[in-house]
Write a structure and sequence with these properties.
Length: 317
Amino acid sequence: MPMERDDMTRESVSSSAGSWRQTTAERAALPPPPALHWGWVFLFSVLTFGLFTLIWPFVQANWVRKIDPQSSAKSLLWVALACSILGYVLTGTETSHEIGAPMSTQMRLGMLLQLVHVVLYLIAYFAMAASIRREMAAYRVPVRIGAITLFFLNLLYLQGQLRWLAHWQQTGRTQPQPPKAVLWVCFVIPAVVIMAALALPAYQIYVVRAQVAGALAQAEPLKQQVIDAIGLHRAWPQSNTQAGLKEAEAYAGNNLSGFVVYAVDDGTALVTRFDEHALVPLRGKQLAWVAGAQGGAIVWHCESPDIEAIYLPESCH
């Protein structure tokens, strides 16, 4: 019995050693992945003003082509780069375009080529990820490449995966896992915060303008009543009563304290004031519509003595 146990032990050790040698040989047969740390890739990209980001994807695609000769990622990257260069040339040489003017065919084509560049670039990275997952399955290495992270952090995220594979090839260990959360913390979350910080002022302006637009809409039927009163009495009304309107407080609401008709030089004015419920940039401030005669017709002009111009529509400037 002891001899049988010794034989079984020797067979087990021999089997383990053979399996270890086989695994080591398999790892040695794998072309060495580019093992540059993703942090260095980012740093070199910054120091070269983005030039490194044009070169390194081809290094990654070249390695993928070694493990998967059918990979089309490298070809896609070349086409994407050509589209990018041509697109920038077309948009950069368009000097006659003015703000507000229709875009020329050259400008549209340039922007389209830049969009094609982005699409092909992403397709190339997803193709590389698919090749890596498929080919590394033969080595029994569970490669997990998240689609969302790859979409946003393609270059750095894939480089983290390649460095992880290089570590596995050298040591046979799959721990620690390739970086993912750290990339989100370092890049995506700060980017979202920055974009939110940039978008917040624009959103605040939009909200204030929406309240101003509400006041403009509320004034429309009252302006028509004033015009009717002018036509009826052949005179500029100097009060709500003469304009056929109710008391000012009757029109209070929607952040407005009401509407009052005043007499002005050669015309009449319909004035409202934003109440304490209005947004801070409008609170307590006035918005007026001044009616005057122009070319035999009554013309309204919107103005405000204390609301910043950025919150007013073009018709009130």
